[in-house]
Amino acid sequence: MPLLVSSVLIIVLIIAVVVVVFLAAVASRRRRAEVAERRTAVAAHRDEAAARNRSAEQARLEAQERSARAERERLAAEEQTERAERERVAAEHHETQAREIDPDA
């Protein structure tokens, strides 16, 4: 009888070890699946961040370009205003000279 109890005990221990190894394998597989999911999520977040960074950089460059264009237009308008003022002053000068020279005035 002691031999039978020892054999049953060894069988129970072997079954317990097999169950523990099986549960460890299942847990390990789950962890690997979770890690793979997290890696996929991280990759998606990084891709989204990269796309948003590109979009933000493009918007910044477009804003700089518009700003430079507006500055060029402002300078051109300022130059045109100065030219118009010079023409107005020249026209007044010619009008004054014409009045001075006019024999009928």
Describe this structure in words.
This protein is mostly helical and 105 residues long. It has a domain at 62-105. It is built from one helix and no strands.
Give keywords.
single chain; 105 residues; mainly alpha; 1 helix; 0% strand; rod-shaped
Question: Would you tell me the structural class of the helices and strands?
Answer: mainly alpha
Percent strand: under 5%
Number of extended strands: 0
Continuous helix count: 1
Q: C-alpha Rg, in Å?
A: 45 Å
Low-confidence stretches: none
Distance between the termini: 150 Å
Give the SSE map.
Elements: H1 2-101
In short:
This protein is mainly alpha-helical and about 100 residues long. The protein contains 1 helix and no strands.
